[in-house]
Amino acid sequence: DNVLTQSPGTLSLSPGETATLSCRASQSVTSNYLAWYQQKPGQAPRLLIYAASGRATGIPDRFGGSGSETDFTLTISGLEPEDFAVYYCQQYGSSPATFGGGTKVEIK
Amino acid sequence: QVQVVQSGAAVKKPGASVKVSCKTSGYIFPGYYIHWVRQAPGQGPEWMGWINPKSGDTSYAQKFQGRVSMTRDTSISTADLELSRLRSDDTAVYYCAISDYAFDAYEIWGQGTMVRVSS
């Protein structure tokens, strides 16, 4: 299985700051099929980014994805109050699809 | 407008089976894959498998082989997940999610179904 490791585990930032989240894969992600999801308590994950850098429908442009092969980054430029949540990366290029352990972005 | 509504929470004893339903509307049901993903308390999501509603073909994660069954009823646009021989570590929220292809991100999710396994 392609194991995804996310860092840091927790990111403490203030509104308006920029968040940089990392996702590292144990094997190259086929076709850079790497997605990022946001999850708030009691809710299902929400797709933000697909194929490493494609923004999902309705996602604000302050969310940006980059990277390739084994190293991927989610950048949130100018944190809004509603952005404080847990973020997961997922690779779906090979079976089984796998998720990272998550990064919590909390208010400092 | 696509809607995905899952069945309600369940409490089961170890060794029992559970069935979770995922009723969809607002799109062409056979045209999209349905994945099942679970999330144990405080943990990241875990992919369990998918079903192609058009053909009925399935793909299961190795971890669940022999214990999981994914089925669909195209007449009512519903997909079901059945997990047998439940253990306490099967306690989780179970989600269905829709994608265009087998290898694809999941843009639409159900609201989740809490399954608790406890003696």
Tell me about this structure.
- With 108 residues, chain A is mostly beta strands.
- Helices cover 0% and strands 49% of the residues of chain A.
- In chain A, the strands form two sheets. In chain A, strands 2, 4, 5, 6, 9, 10 and 11 form a seven-stranded mixed beta sheet that branches. Chain A has a four-stranded antiparallel beta sheet with strand order 1-3-8-7, with no helix packed on it.
- In chain A, a hairpin with a 6-residue loop joins strand 4 and strand 5.
- Chain A is globular.
- Chain B has 119 residues and is mostly beta strands.
- Chain B is built from no helices and eleven strands.
- In chain B, the strands form two sheets. In chain B, strands 2, 4, 5, 6, 9, 10 and 11 form a seven-stranded mixed beta sheet that branches. A four-stranded antiparallel beta sheet of chain B has the order 1-3-8-7, with no helix packed on it.
- The radius of gyration of chain B is 13 Å and the shape is globular.
- The termini of chain B are far apart.
- The interface between A and B is medium-sized, with 25 and 21 residues.
